[in-house]
Amino acid sequence: MKGYSREESYALFEEAMHNLTTANFILTAKPISDLLKFIVYNEIMQSFVSECNRSINYDSALRSAIRKENGKYYFTLPKSNRAIVALTVNLMYDFDKGNQSLDAFISGFYPATDLKTSYTMFCDAVLIPFRDAFKQAFLFDNNLIENQDIENEKIYSKVNPAAVDQIGSLVHMLRTDFLADNKLNTAEREDYTLIADGLYEALEKGDTRLAAAVWAGMKYTIGSQKKYLKRFRELESVLKMYTII
């Protein structure tokens, strides 16, 4: 993707958000995927979102956003603009990868007579505030260190646990692919598994330098084979999102 200025990048982001918030509910998969791809492949956006991601633990932030009152469940965005950005981007990543069902999420937190209405409520409560928080933090607060909620300070981590979880899931899928590949001999299967496991273990320990070194090895082994390319690209997307590579 060509180099865009900060203002140009935000204009494109806003266009992608418009496509998402005005989409027919049953056709939201593509605008969600397009938005995430834009963030990953726009250098300024990717760097900004990665900074936001380092401020929270996604799983803990997601739990904190959910509360139950009088038998009903509510989803509330955090107060910090950057925390809103990190939480919402990761939530959309979950929707995109099938880790969470968008249908179940909006019908659970925004019940209505039909999913179209629930989606409109979700846009008003989450996606529009996300867009506004993104604009404020990306265009105007970029050189400021925002005061984080106490919860965010407690859950700060060198390697965002959300990245570790996502890489862990993809590594597990790769291991399954290796086992199912009858064209691999035993030694190759063991080597590939060792490399994939090494990437996950390096991230789990918080050793980003080792993770980058393992990734370099993966590019010339697993990443060079067309049959594993889809999974390799998914790993690459997560690692770039969290500025590990």
Return residue spans where pLDDT drops below 50 for at least 5 consecutive residues. Answer: 143-157
* DSSP helix fraction: 55-70%
The domain tally reads 2
**Given the helix and strand composition, which structural class is it?**
mainly alpha
What percentage of the residues does DSSP assign to strands (E)?
under 5%
Mean pLDDT: 85
Number of helices: 12
Write the layout of secondary structure elements.
Elements: H1 6-21, H2 29-41, H3 43-53, H4 58-65, E1 66-69, E2 72-75, H5 81-97, H6 102-109, H7 115-140, H8 150-154, H9 161-180, H10 186-205, H11 208-219, H12 229-241
Antiparallel strand pairs: 1-2
Helix pairs in contact: 1-2, 1-7, 2-3, 2-5, 3-5, 5-7, 6-7, 9-10, 9-12, 10-11
Account of the 3D structure:
With 245 residues, the chain is mainly α. Helix content is 69%, strand content 3%. The protein has two domains: 6-154, no CATH class; 161-241. It contains twelve helices and two strands. α5 (81-97) crosses α7 (115-140). The model is unreliable at 143-157 (pLDDT under 50).
How is this structure best summarized?
With 245 residues, the protein is mainly α. The chain contains twelve helices and two strands. The model is unreliable at 143-157 (pLDDT under 50).
Based on the model shown, name its key terms:
single chain, 245 residues, mainly alpha, 2 domains, two-stranded antiparallel sheet, 12 helices, 69% helix
